Amino acid sequence: MATLVLTTVGTLVGGPIGGAVGALIGNRIDGTVLGGGGRQGPRLGELSVQTSSYGSMIPKMFGRMRVAGTVIWATDLKENMTRGGGGKGQPDARQYSYSASFAVALSARAVRSIGRIWADGTLLRGAAGDWKGVTGFRFHPGGEGQVVDPLIAAVEGIDRAPAYRGIAYVVFEDMALAAYGNRIPSLSFEVEADAGPMTIGAVAAILSGGAIADGSMTQVLGYAASGDSVRGAVETLAAAVPSVLIDPDGGLVLREGREPPVTLPVTALGTAVGLQGGVRQERDRRTAGTAADAVTIAYYEIERDYQAGLQRAGRGGVGRRVTAVELPAVMSATVARDIAERRLATDWAGRHEAVVRLPWRWMGLMPGAAVRLPGAGPVADWRVAGVTIDRMVVEVRLVAQPAERGAMPPPAVPGRAVMQPDRPHGPTTIAIFELPAGVPGIAAGGGVHVAAAGVSPGWRSALLSGGVDGDATLTPIGRTAPAAVIGRVAVAMPVAGSTLFDARTAIEIVLLNDAMALEGRSDAAMLNGANLALVGGELIQFGRAEQIGVARFRLTRLLRGRYGTEAAIGAHGPDERFVLVEPDRLVTMALPATAIGAPATIMASGIGDADPVEAVGPFLGLALQPPAPVHLSATRLVDGTIWFRWTRRSRAGWAWADGVDVPLGEEAERYRLTISRAARTVRTVTVDGPAWLYPPDLQAADGLAGAGALAFAVAQLGTLAASREAGRIFTV
Questions:
Q1: Is residue 34's pLDDT more than 70?
Q2: What share of the chain has pLDDT > 70, as a percent?
Q3: Could you give the strand order of the β-sheet that contains 691-694, starting from the edge strand earlier in sequence?
Q4: Nearest 5°: phi and psi at 579?
Q5: Where are the alpha helices (DSSP H) in 166-229?
Q6: Dihedral pair phi/psi, residue 629, rounded to 5°
């Protein structure tokens, strides 16, 4: 008679040897059901790297997983160009941006939905379905009736475009790539294939087309089945979670946990085959050094955004031998540790082995069955690891099973992870303003600056367009810079001087959102341009910033009227605009001197904006104007001549480097002097130096005989624009 060898993973056998053997035979065992040949299952790191090569395996998703996917279709990069006017002496500015369209396969079986999406590790789409970047998006769940994506059909032709039926995939259309170095980023997706947790047996049942029944208890929140065969995927689960694949009644069952054992009675043994004393047993106990001192389980941690986690079970000591198990499944830390402890207990119990030879009546004893031996000593429970039938003798190989566990251990700690907050993008807030020439980091030339941010900390960017004087069509000027610090005045700010540090005044600011912050800087840093802010039309600097509430700060140690804005010093009331001036957080729309006096319009459109956001303000050419003169004086000389004097300032620089004078900064030095009395202008002259003599005869001709109050104002006439007038009243 042939020798038949049966094990817990089954072997396809044949031959008419009776019903007891026939119960263990069938086309469901091993190669036919599980797939022959290959034995490689999924690995832990396979889901974290996006691929695009031919032959890449697309896993089957179960439960909820995070997967990188495989790029299965893509177009060339699309180049977009925007142009901005450079103004006089400035080159025509062109900006290029790029986008791409592509498809990514996620699962080789249908899935229910797509949750969060990450691009280069940064959230691209939040849990609520809100987008943090600009892209078109379509989801194809992978049903057998799946239709062709319209973009793929348009590019490839309807007759050549595949529908990818049975493959769950997504399509990105014109995804903006500026935030990712103008390349397609590495993407990962939160995929929900099935509702709720699944047992490992349920996964095996689906993978085997129903040939394997579920007899397991351990639940996983997600699993990605891949490898070179169904057998590899199933055995990866069965190896990590102590379980057996048995065939109790002609159908395979993945069984986990304990079932009532079959007791081998002494009276039923021995006499039929001449064995004295009943069962013939051979026992073996391997040394402790052959078993692991610790077991580690690597898995995907649900509480840390699917990052790889590790749980360990040990028997104390330094752990000379460690069994490392990779389980590419999503679970909690507590479940992972429980698996590790059960695996360790099973490995240590498995050091006890026995071989039992039984009469032919026990041919129905199946691999995987639980048995109890009479007189077994300290080992109570055994499991059948294999059965050999030879010459009507049933030889059963047994492996000891661990003792029943007591109370469950306390919950495991998953560890801490620094995870990106999932905040909605929200609507855009923009501020447009001009800055005088010479502000550190701001390029010379006329134009308006745009600062943008959002009321939500999740705001990222918006598209900008602009124009002047009511242009019917606004010109694209690119995307916004990173979010600026924008707020409003909360408490009225009093008037103060502009020549010294103001140690008495405080200004309270409420910022747009609680992710924004202000911090103090040293006096030296302030003198080098640090902590410059625009309040209304006045530029201030602050040395100290104290947070006094949510997004609320009190600013002290101030410098007022900076860079020639002393005329705007006043009592700034509540709700006046506050913008921290940081050059790398501003976008500039350059404008020529011919546009001075025309209204400038900026329009922003972001992901969270139902309608474009518009801001309009007059273009004054502030950066093209020389600063107003200072230190005005008028002195009557002995002969009655009035000597008007002043000191010029320069838009070419604010530092007094040589102690003599500042650079002119204009093609020629010219001033317009206006003299008036009792609100009546009596004379206007243009001079080429910072002084003018007003002789008695001209005074008489202007009707200014005798002493009295006299007002004069002076403005510097720059190459492109005139400065603001500086004025003073004297009694001469």
A1: no
A2: 83
A3: 630-636, 642-647, 691-694
A4: -135, 125
A5: 200-207
A6: -60, 160
172: part of which helix (H) or strand (E)? Answer: strand 168-176
Same domain, 595 and 651: no
Which of 605, 689, 688, 684 shows the shortest CA–CA distance to 645? Answer: 689
Q: Among 145-154, 402-411, 428-437, 636-645, where is mean pLDDT lowest? A: 402-411
Do 677 and 616 belong to one domain? no
Q: Which of 123, 156, 185 is the last residue of a domain?
A: 185
At residue 283, the pLDDT reads 53
Distance of CA 561 to the CA centre of its chain: 40
- Whether the Cβ atoms of residue 188 and residue 66 lie closer than 8 Å to each other: yes
Asked whether the beta carbons of 495 and 553 are under 8 A apart, the reply is no
Which phi-psi region, left, alpha or beta, contains residue 35 (left: φ > 0; alpha: ψ -120 to 50)? Answer: left
For 375, other C-beta atoms within 10 Å of its C-beta total 9
Quote the CA–CA distance of 170 and 158 in Å, as a whole number. 18
151-189 pLDDT, tens digit per residue, is 999 999 999 999 999 999 999 999 988 888 888 899 999
Give the three-class secondary structure for 211. Answer: coil
d(CA 71, CA 76): 13
Counting Cβ atoms within 10 Å, is residue 669 exposed (0-12), middle (13-18) or buried (19+)?
middle
More confident position, 92 or 68: 68
Pairing of strands 552-559, 691-694: unpaired
719 and 646 within one domain: yes
Band of pLDDT at residue 424, cut at 50, 70 and 90: confident
Q: For 347, which DSSP code? A: H
pLDDT digits (tens, 9 = 90+) for 264-293: 765 444 333 333 333 445 555 555 556 778
Q: Name which of 725, 81, 88, 719 is nearest 447 in CA terms.
A: 88
Per-residue pLDDT, 476: 86
Whether residue 616 is found in the same domain as residue 634: no
- Structural domain that includes position 500: 428-622
d(CA 581, CA 591): 20
Beta-strand (E) ranges in 370-434?
Answer: 370-372, 382-390, 393-400, 428-433
Beta bridge partners of 390: 393
Please give the pLDDT value at position 282: 54
d(CA 432, CA 182): 28
Quick one: CA dihedral 497, 499, 503, 506, positive or negative?
positive
Region 18-23: mean pLDDT is 33
Backbone angles phi, psi at 21, to 5 degrees: -75, -35
Query: Looking at residue 94, what is its pLDDT?
Result: 66
In a domain, 531, yes or no: yes
Give me 605's structure tokens: 């459109």
Mean pLDDT computed over 591-604: 90
CA atoms within 13 A on the CB side of 91: 3
Q: For residue 26, is pLDDT > 50? A: no
Q: Which of 575, 605, 622 is the last residue of a domain?
A: 622
Whether 28 is in a domain gets the answer: no
Any idea which residue has 């979670």 for tokens?
241
In 10 A of CB 127, how many CB atoms? Answer: 10
